[in-house]
Amino acid sequence: MFLKLLDEYLSTIPPKQAEKRMNSIKHQEINEVRFGWAGATALGEGHCYRIQGKSFLIEFDNVQDEANHIHNVWRDFEGDFGRDIIREHYKNSDHYKHE
């Protein structure tokens, strides 16, 4: 069930990237992925879930307007939006000691 849900999230990015990400999760961290649920299971009642691996976090929140308004996020700890902004900052900043 988890892999089907993960596939839904990955379907929003280009297929080659999605395949690479899915393979990485399956082969490197699948046994460390955790799922948490809070709230109701009845239609129209608030609920949320969180899926977290060592390299990513997914949160789904549906508690407003009789559970008719969702907030959803995917975080990639290794470089949101295709970049590792912190690593770039450390590498290029004048105030950080380069090695």
Question: What is the compact description of this entry?
Answer:
The protein contains three helices and four strands, in the order H-H-E-E-E-E-H. It is of the alpha+beta class and 99 residues long. The longest helix has 14 residues, at 15-28.
Q: So how many helices?
A: 3
Specify Rg, calculated over alpha carbons.
17 Å
- What value does the average pLDDT take? 88
Can you list the strand order of the major beta sheet?
A: 1-2-3-4
**Fraction of helical residues:** 25-40%
Class of secondary structure makeup: alpha+beta
**What are the segments in which pLDDT stays under 50 over at least 5 consecutive residues?**
none
Taking the alpha carbons of the first and last residues, their distance comes to: 45 Å
Total beta strand runs: 4
User: How does the overall form come out from the CA principal axes?
Assistant: globular
Order of helices and strands: HHEEEEH
β-sheet strand percentage:
25-35%
Largest sheet: 4 strands, antiparallel
How many domains would you count in the coordinates? 1
Architecture overview:
The protein has one domain. It is an alpha+beta fold and 99 residues long. The mean pLDDT is 88. It contains three helices and four strands; from the N terminus they run ααββββα. The longest helix has 14 residues, at 15-28. The protein has helices at residues 2-10, 15-28, 85-92, and strands at 34-39, 47-52, 56-64, 69-76. Strands 1-2-3-4 form a four-stranded antiparallel sheet, with no helix packed on it.
